[in-house]
Each structure stands twice: as C-alpha cells, then as structure tokens.
Amino acid sequence: MSMTELELIIDLHRQTDRQGPGSKEDTLRALEFVDLPANQEWAIADIGCESGGQTITLAEQGLAHITAVDLFDPFLQELNERSRVAGLSNQITTQQCSMESLPFGQESLNLIWSEGAIYNMGFLEGIKAWRKYLKEGGYLAVSEITWTSAIRPQEVEDFWMGEYAEISQASHKIAQLEQNGYLLEGYFCLSFNSWLDNYYTPLANGFTAFLERHEHSERAQKVVHDTEAEIAFYMKYKDYYSYGFYIARKAS
Ligand code: SAH
C-alpha cells in the first residue's frame, strides 16, 4: 500500500526523540517559572504532545497527572509505549482529540503545557480558548515561533508570512497574553542547539533509513527534499526567528 505524503512525514518524524525544536533543558527551564504548591497532585495537560519528549520529562519530575493530547493516534501509541518503558504509565494518560475541542472541564487544570503546537489553532485563539480550563492561579507554558529581530530580510519575512502569518516579536505575543487574562512569569528563546541537536540533526540522520523503508519512492524523496530545504533555510536565517517559550499565570 502506498502511503500519503502526510503518513510519510509522520513516519519520518516518529523515529526521532523530539518532533520540534526543543530539549529536555528547555522544558526544565520553562518549568522553573511554574510555582505550584508542592506535595499536591497537579492536573496537567500537554497539548500537541506528539510522541511526548516533553511529556516524559514532565512526568520524570514526579508531576502528575498528565493528560497528553494529540490529533494523531500513531504518536500517542508511541508515547504510551515510551511511558510504559520508562515506568511512567500511571502518570500519563493519552487522549486523541483536537486542541480546538479539548475534553477538560472548566477550571480543572493546574498547568497547560504545549511545545511547538499552538500554531495549529493560532497563538491568540489558543491562549483565549484554553484559559477557561485553568484553575485560578494555574499556569500556561507554550512555545511558539517568534521573530528575534525587528529588521528582517524580505525572503525570511515572505516565507513566514506564507507559513504562519501570526509569527511576531515576543513583545507582541507578551502583550497578547497580558490583554487576555494572563500575567507573564517568564520568557526565553530556544537556542540554536535546541533546533539542531534535538530536531534537525536527528531528522537528517534518519533520511537514509527512511528512504530505504519506502524503497526510494518519489513521495519519500520529496519529503526528504522538503525537509532538507527547511533545514537549509533555517541555517541561513536562524538569527531572525526561533521558538519563544512563554510562561504565564492566569490572572484572576
Ligand atoms: N510537542 C511536541 C510536538 C510538536 S509538533 C514537541 O515539541 O516535540 C505539533 C503537534 O501538534 C503534532 O504532534 C501534531 O500532530 C499536533 N497537532 C496538529 N494539529 C492538532 C490539533 N488540531 N489538535 C491537537 N494536536 C494537533
């Protein structure tokens, strides 16, 4: 059976530990800004978890209980397997659903986590829609593509306007948080190494096996070619954009 391009992209990505820029260090750094009462079970949602690099890191800190949500079931199966192997199954529940219609009750969560995923519904829509699920004093920790410079070459500007027109500078995203019932607790920008070591390098290392698995089909070659182009683009323009990590608390 021949796979669709989306299935191929999923197959290429599920082999790697992380499916977006980020790292264990970044997750832990963001978590430092979250000050919730100790010795208490926290209700956490990890939205757009994919195969759960960050979910595992959160669970390893003894945080419970985490409901990890993604639109695609193969990623959740992978996460279930990883949780089992790590002995963290009782802390992590996976649930297939859209971030646009989450299964959580009003004011039921202490912490909403989401790395590199909120763009699927848009940052502004996401922060507005998710606020109601947070308990009073609950936290939101999201990473989002962000301009790191106010002056940008036209090519990088045009590329991102086509991909995701909501990209903006951190100052603008922070203002959106402040205008929509959140208090900023922390912000930092993912390093160059978080993009390369944990995302692009492992992806590129998987190209050969991926092409072999799919018998060098035209579609598989296209997926590799597109990914190579994305990496080259990043290398050229990495000084102008990155992922910003925004940590905020629900204002009463
Ligand atoms: N948090 C992971 C994955 C980021 S990639 C990491 O940082 O490594 C974005 C994820 O969002 C993918 O797993 C994709 O399947 C998921 N996704 C896309 N649209 C979605 C939607 N509407 N609802 C929930 N998840 C979605």
Descriptive labels:
globular; 252 residues; single chain
Would you write up a description of this structure?
By secondary structure, the chain is an alpha/beta fold. Helix content is 43%, strand content 21%. The protein has 10 helices and 8 strands. Strands 1, 2, 3, 4, 5, 6, 7 and 8 form an 8-stranded mixed beta sheet that branches. Strand 5, helix 6 and strand 6 form a beta-alpha-beta unit. The model has no long low-confidence stretch (mean pLDDT 94). The protein binds S-adenosyl-L-homocysteine.
Mean pLDDT: 94
What's the number of helices? Answer: 10
The SSE string, one letter per element, is: HHEHEHEEHEHEHEHHHE
End-to-end separation in angstroms reads 54 Å
pLDDT under 50 segments (min length 5)?
none
> How much helicity do the residues have?
40-55%
Oligomer: single chain
Tell me, briefly, the overall form: globular
The percent range for strand residues is 15-25%
| Total strand segments | 8
User: What class would the helix/strand composition place it in?
Assistant: alpha/beta
- Main sheet makeup: 8 strands, mixed
Radius of gyration: 18 Å
Distinct ligands: S-adenosyl-L-homocysteine
